Amino acid sequence: MKIPTSFKLLGHKYTVAYDPGLLDREGCSGLAVYQTHQILLAPPNANRCIERVCQTFWHEVAHHMMERMGCDDLRVDEKFIDMLSSLLHQVIVTAEGEL
Question: Where does residue 87 fall: left (phi above 0), alpha (psi -120 to 50 degrees), or beta otherwise?
């Protein structure tokens, strides 16, 4: 899967970028920046494969989706966000065929 540099949610444009500074933050591989409609991702390296970065991308997208929907209780529920993002990621990477 290719990670986009931008996408839209409800007409709002979101940008996506690598932020090597996230590698210095313990346990942080991505960040949803709500005020500026951004997703920042720790870049792939010897310890983080591109597949893990893709999963992190969908995790941060899920945070932004819940924020756009006004679901603040779900936006901060990491267990929910992890499950939703895992499901979205699986659909995208296993999709086959065309109708």
Answer: alpha
3-class secondary structure, 78: helix
Structure tokens given for 68? 């756009």
Domain that holds residue 10: 6-94
29-77 residue pLDDT tens: 999 999 999 999 999 988 889 999 999 999 999 999 999 999 999 999 9
pTM over 0.90: yes
- Residue 5: CB atoms within 10 A of its CB come to 9
Q: Based on the structure, what is the number of domains in the chain?
A: 1
Strand order in the sheet with 30-33: 6-9, 12-18, 38-41, 30-33
> Does some domain include residue 99?
no
Helices 50-68 and 78-94 sit at what angle, rounded to 10 degrees?
120
